[in-house]
């Protein structure tokens, strides 16, 4: 199962994500973008 949030746009082949080896773990997710300066102003949880 691949869950994509309703406000996300996929612009690539999801097959690469499906085929990713997560080494037997039950789930995988993206990290928070703390180092990405493009996220400045959108981190509502830090206000």
TrEMBL record:
Domain of life: Eukaryota
Pfam families: Glyco_transf_24
Single GO term (MF): unfolded protein binding
Cofactor: Ca(2+)
A biological process term (GO) from this entry: protein N-linked glycosylation via asparagine
Domain Glucosyltransferase 24 catalytic: from-to ranges: 1-47
InterPro entries: Glyco_transf_24 (IPR040497), Nucleotide-diphossugar_trans (IPR029044), UDP-g_GGtrans (IPR009448)
Gene Ontology cellular component list: endoplasmic reticulum
Protein name in the entry: Glucosyltransferase 24 catalytic domain-containing protein
